[in-house]
Design a protein that fits this description.
Elements lengths: L2 E5 L2 E4 L4 E8 L7 E7 L6 E6 L6 E3 L7 E6 L4 E6 L8 E8 L2 H6 L5 E4 L3 E6 L1
Length: 126
């Protein structure tokens, strides 16, 4: 069973950048699509970005396109989310996830998710 652990969150000013990392342990990411979700207190989790298991295909929520970049290194079992030009509305807890397919990841088909990280707080101050 794969376990996920995020790191890299913190406090940043508007327009700044952060790079989130998600490290897998227990077993490799191999064969899993991976991605990032975020949640603001009181709201549902929302999809942010996803990457196919070979890293060939990437997908983004419209509000982060052009600002966020997802990548993965299967050799080190790590997924990254580079976040640039951050806005106050990006403030949330960010969660890394692994799913059986890229479709499940993008659609929030949580029955086909295999693991979640514990989350890392990102706060963008204006």
């Amino acid at each position: 069973q794969v376990q996920l652990a995020e790191s890299g969150g913190g406090l940043v000013q508007v327009g700044g950048s952060l790079r989130l990392s998600c490290a897998a342990s227990g077993r490799s990411f191999g064969g899993y699509a991976t991605g990032w979700y975020r949640r603001v207190p009181g709201n549902e989790r929302e999809f942010v970005a996803a990457i196919s298991w070979k890293g060939i295909s990437t997908y983004y929520q419209d509000s982060v396109k052009g600002r966020f970049t997802i990548s993965r290194d299967n050799a080190t079992n790590t997924v990254y989310l580079q976040m640039d030009s951050l806005k106050p509305e990006d403030t949330a807890v960010y969660y890394c996830a692994a799913a059986r397919s890229i479709g499940a990841m993008m659609d929030g088909d949580f029955e086909n998710f295999r693991a979640w990280g514990q989350g890392t707080q990102v706060t963008v101050s204006s």
